[in-house]
Amino acid sequence: MARRLPPLNSLKVFEAAARHESFSAAAAELCVTHGAVSRHVAQLEDWIGHALFLRHGRRVALTAPGRAYLAEITAAFDRIALATSEQVQAARRQVIRVNAPTTFALRWLLPRLSEFQLAHPAVEVRLTTSNAPVGKIRDEVDIAIRGGDQQADGYVAREFLAEGRLPVCSPRLLETLPLRRPADLAGHTLLHSATYPGMWSEWLEASGNGGLVPRQSLQLEHFYLTLQAALDGLGVAMGPTALVALDVKEGRLVFPFRGPVLPPWRYYAYVSARRAGDEAIGSFLAWLEAAGAEAAAATGALA
């Protein structure tokens, strides 16, 4: 059923005249003549069938029906304005599809992502997680974050973060089992991750304790489980400095040794070549690089 609506231009003029209770003020706001306002109001009154204003020479005042009508029209205009603003913002919003490894997303990207969102409210980041090589990610992505340099057709790589790796544990663990030198690890449980094999053997070799046998070893499927086990005091993990920086800063984890630090593990943002020139992509990459530099400086001070 078609809506029976009055002339919309006349409604707009009425709302301005009624809000000011002045045809002259409404004319100035709408950039029309006083006569045009008077004609639009008269047209609306004729359409409705009763007066909306009382006229006293060039002064006007709302009638009771006019005041009630103004309240409804104002509310309707407010709803139209809000709905229109939401549509305009949606049209301007740019979407960036980002894919990152689960542990990196949970422990580095998500805790910092609100900073980017606050600075770029018109950019919507849609985050998915995967450990697959860049060229084999099933989801369509604009930026893939991966550790290590990979060859990926159709993507441009930009390094944004480098982190060292050294042992990390809960401070509560050290209260019962102190760690004064690497050899003391023989009395501890070493936490391993199936997704980062070999880190402990590399570090022990670098520390001069390649033949060390720990009291126990515990292997977990994903690295974020390994770090959670360290937080819970189950043992000592090898901690990539960037991924544990917030926990160390807030005292949930500690580095029991100052070194040796294994060579840096580098993170790259692989950008889809077809969107490499987008302003939103450029903003996200610039933010990643700034956040990476800040994180590197902070973890360097903590380690």
UniProtKB/TrEMBL annotation:
Keywords: DNA-binding, Transcription, Transcription regulation
Keyword Transcription found: yes
PROSITE patterns: HTH_LYSR
Domain of life: Bacteria
NCBIfam families in alphabetical order: PRK11139.1
Pfam families attached to this UniProt entry: HTH_1 (PF00126), LysR_substrate (PF03466)
Entry's family note: Belongs to the LysR transcriptional regulatory family.
Matches recorded under SUPFAM superfamilies: Periplasmic binding protein-like II, Winged helix' DNA-binding domain
Protein's UniProt keywords contain DNA-binding: yes
Domain HTH lysR-type: start-end pairs: 6-63
Organism of origin: Cupriavidus malaysiensis
InterPro entries: LysR-type_TF_proteobact-type, LysR_HTH_N, LysR_subst-bd, WH-like_DNA-bd_sf, WH_DNA-bd_sf
Protein name per Swiss-Prot or TrEMBL: Transcriptional regulator
